[in-house]
Write a structure and sequence with these properties.
By secondary structure, the chain is α/β, with parallel strands linked by helices. It has two domains: 80 residues, Methionine synthase domain (Methyltransferase, Methionine Synthase (B12-binding Domains), Chain A, domain 1, Orthogonal Bundle); 121 residues, 3-Layer(aba) Sandwich (Rossmann fold), CATH 3.40.50.280. The protein is built from nine helices and five strands.
Length: 211
């Protein structure tokens, strides 16, 4: 049934995706398995978007499906894991000059269902906005997303702006995107990079001490 759910989400079959997610949960499947299916499906959606097979409307539909399935799964995960107090807070955004959001949205979804408070400031976000939001909301973690190589310099500028504002020591900074690696992390001045959404959750948990 997991493979059927992946196909339904990837092929924009909203009603079928919800039916399958509900059926899996009703059958006693691990809620994490449903999340894994969502993650795998969104990877396919992302590939199709990059190859121009899908466009913005499909991304919107996929995002809606993620939210709807997340609303089903999150209470079960809370119950299963005994989650009560938030695991921490994460400020998340795609840096200025980059309008890609599918990776960011998957990370946001995965953090949310793992009991993090997520403040998503969207796409094409200037450094000053990150600084203002850190000052205002005092998140534990800042996640900078970027898909294009031009994001490297903007991420570096964002980290420098956070440092100049005297806020660098108050947050951990992770970066994400298909082109990120250890060398880019060092160049930007971030603390770590997440190779995928699950890695981002693990990083956030390690920094906040969440189980």
């Amino acid at each position: 049934m997991k493979e059927q759910l992946i196909d339904a989400i990837a092929n924009m079959e909203e009603d079928e995706a919800m039916r399958l997610a509900q059926a899996m949960l009703a059958a006693g499947e691990d809620p994490q398995l449903v999340l894994d299916a969502c993650r795998d499906a969104m990877s396919i959606v992302g590939d199709r978007y990059e190859s121009k097979e899908y466009f913005l409307p499909e991304l919107v539909i996929a995002g809606d499906m993620l939210n709807d399935i997340g609303a089903l799964v999150k209470p079960l995960l809370k119950e299963e894991r005994g989650l009560s107090d938030p695991a921490g807070s994460v400020l998340l955004g795609t840096v200025a000059g980059d309008i890609h959001d599918i990776g960011k949205d998957i990370v946001s979804f995965m953090l949310d269902v793992n009991n993090f408070v997520v403040i998503d400031v969207g796409i094409d976000v200037p450094a000053a906005t990150f600084v203002d939001k850190i000052r205002e909301l005092k998140p534990d973690v800042v996640g900078l997303s970027g898909f294009l190589t031009l994001a490297f310099d903007q991420m570096k500028l964002t980290v420098e702006a956070i440092e100049e504002a005297g806020l660098r020591d108050s947050v951990k900074i992770m970066i994400g995107g298909a082109i990120m690696d250890e060398a880019v992390t060092s160049y930007i001045g971030a603390d770590a990079y997440g190779a995928d959404a699950s890695a981002a959750v693990k990083l956030a948990k390690s920094w906040t001490g969440a189980n």
